[in-house]
Amino acid sequence: MGGSRRTVFASFHPDDRDWVQGVLFPALRSSGIEPLSADDLQPGAAVLDEYERIVVDLGGRVVLVISPAYVLQQQESDLELLAATYGRELGVWPVIPFVLHPTDGLRLRLRMLKPIEAFPPDRQEAAIGQLIAALGAEPPAPEERPPCPYPGLGPYTGPEHFYGREREIEAAATLLYQHPLLVVMGPSGTGKSSLVRAGLLPRLRDASRFGEGEWLFLDLEPASTPRSQLVELLGGEPTTGTVTARLQAAS
Predict the structure, then answer these.
(1) Cα separation of 250 and 86, whole Å?
(2) I want to staple 156 with a disulfide (CB 3.0 to 4.6 A). Which of 30, 32, 182, 194 is the partner?
């Protein structure tokens, strides 16, 4: 981001203020562009004089954030005059139409400028990048998004990001200490598998109440012959030297 900081004046309808100030302006600033709006115009000064100051004296450009409400108020008329006046002198058209929403009635003079279209919404990011490039700056490198901690319809498989079930986990560990078999039952989608895999099993690995020895965790979906399935998973009948937790999350 070398060189002097670029300036751009954004003209927009109040209905679009939240998007402009919350989305567009931060993206411009991250690329080394200083955005200005009507709030930055000098009080009492003639509007065209202020536009001239921004475009000529500050070397900036003007972006029209166009929406149906913007066109209805015909806010771009003064800025079109600015474009016609200073475009040839600067060697570049100072006005950039940025169409935020599909709009009818866009005047021919603006349509001839090949507006940047930011719709549908999933195209806004690319349109902002196109605008930044048109202003002679480099779009910021995309931020690396952290992995989503929510597994969707699948169960949690580890203790990472699994919270809020401490009471149930402790109750299940206590029941398993008192009985050789624990069956977790409940309606579909209530988190039985997550409770067992991401809550109970990690707790058993760290528990001292069960004495010395390693746990052997087996994961199977019982069919008509669950015992034979278990024997197959074990590679034979269980031996007395191994502590085995047989846990079934009923579906």
Answers:
(1) 75
(2) 194
Q: Which helix (H) or strand (E) holds 102?
A: none
Which two tokens mark 108?
């021919």
Q: What does the pLDDT read at residue 4?
A: 54
Q: Determine the length of the chain.
A: 251
Exposed/middle/buried for residue 147 (C-beta within 10 Å: 0-12, 13-18, 19+)? exposed
Q: Are 223 and 229 in contact (CB under 8 A)?
A: yes
Checking if the pLDDT of 119 tops 60, the result is yes
Q: pLDDT band at residue 76, thresholds of 50, 70 and 90?
A: low
Residue whose structure tokens are 């599909």 = 102
Determine the Cα angle at 207 with ends 157 and 162, to 5°.
Answer: 30
Q: Answer for the pair 136, 118: CB distance below 8 angstroms, yes or no.
A: no
Give yes or no for residue 24 having a pLDDT over 50.
Answer: yes
Q: Is the pTM of this model over 0.85?
A: no
Give the tokens for residue 224: 């008509």
Pairing verdict, β 243-249 and 95-99: unpaired
What does R_g of the chain's alpha carbons equal in angstroms?
32
Phi-psi region of 105 (alpha: psi -120 to 50; beta: other; left: phi over 0): left
Task: Please state, as a whole number, how many other Cβ atoms lie within 10 Å of the Cβ of residue 28.
Answer: 23
Neighbours of 199 (CB within 10 A): 24
Structure tokens given for 140: 């910021």
